Amino acid sequence: MKVLVILTGGTISMVRNAQTGALQPADLHTFKAFVPEMFASETQVNMIPFDPLLDSSDLNPDSWRQMAQIVYDHYEQYDGFVILHGTDTMSYSASALSFMFDNLSKPIVFTGSQLPIGMLRSDAKENLLTSIEIAAAYDQEGKPFVPEVCLYMDGSLYRGNRTTKRNAEHFSAFNSYNYPALARAGVHITYNKALIGNYGNACHPLKLKTNFDTRVAILKLFPGITEPVVASILDSPGLRGVVLETFGAGNAPSHEWLYRRLYNAVEKGLVIVNKTQCNTGSVAMGHYAVSMNLLKAGVLSGYDITTEALLTKMMLLLGEFPNDNKKVKELLLMPLCGEFTNE
Fold this sequence. Notes:
Elements (H helix, E strand, L loop, with lengths): L1 E6 L6 E3 L6 E3 L2 H7 L9 E6 L11 H13 L6 E5 L5 H11 E2 L5 E4 L12 H12 L13 E5 L2 E4 L4 E2 L8 E2 L7 E3 L3 E3 L15 E2 L7 E5 L6 H8 L6 E6 L9 H12 L3 E6 L15 H6 L2 E2 L5 H14 L4 H8 L11
Parallel strand pairs: 1-4, 1-5, 5-7, 7-8, 15-16, 16-17, 17-18
Antiparallel strand pairs: 2-3, 6-14, 8-9, 9-12, 10-11, 12-13
């Protein structure tokens, strides 16, 4: 089996400078020296680093395009891919790449670490080696165990577009609140085959989509929010899409002015999707009276999607269909690769 490791940067790529004691990105030779096991198994592993390596806080749609293009360009040469990435925005990148590919039928595994690879207690080595094993895992019929974009950290493999970073201190940095883990790694890796998606067709060519429209915003409601605050976002010049983070099961204050602002924004062509602020649970618009105004205003339901998945999906759809809001709305309400449950 052949696995390509794409090194973007982040904590996993850091080593301590012997002279200054400061953490700095490792060059490829130094990084490889910390993980000789990576090249000692039956799986052939090659690496491509970003140049320069980037902190995940600096990653953006251009970075997603770069990651995806590397996968696309090497797709026929490798059985699986591992992307090493800083943890802070890993869920955004994993979500974005899940939407960028049509007919993906090979594993793309995102991973990183909470401690640099050069530190004694680092979690980097285990995360990296297990991710490579997952990316190279195929059954006797030659089919991959996990033919989708996923994220592995601290013994758990999740669907990438279902994840959220939950902890800046513990090794278990991520959770998938509304969808169970695809696999658990202990002495053995146990896959939950019933949960793993097969969204691609290996008989059809891989398609890459790269058009992102970043004219989007997140509007988080809070008790006491005022009309000028809402207006400052909804009236932003050129804005095309808004993730509306609401209370509970998708509820919002019943102010007349809020309904009017949302209604007018939708009428002008703004795409607005309702996303609960809760980590667990789903939007159920119309279940409570305080969500009826959102329905009447033309706000769409995000069901149990994460903010990371909704934002990146919205960016891509707005970029792919710049003059077709009807198509954008249709696809936002449709799970494309397991990013939400609408039942």
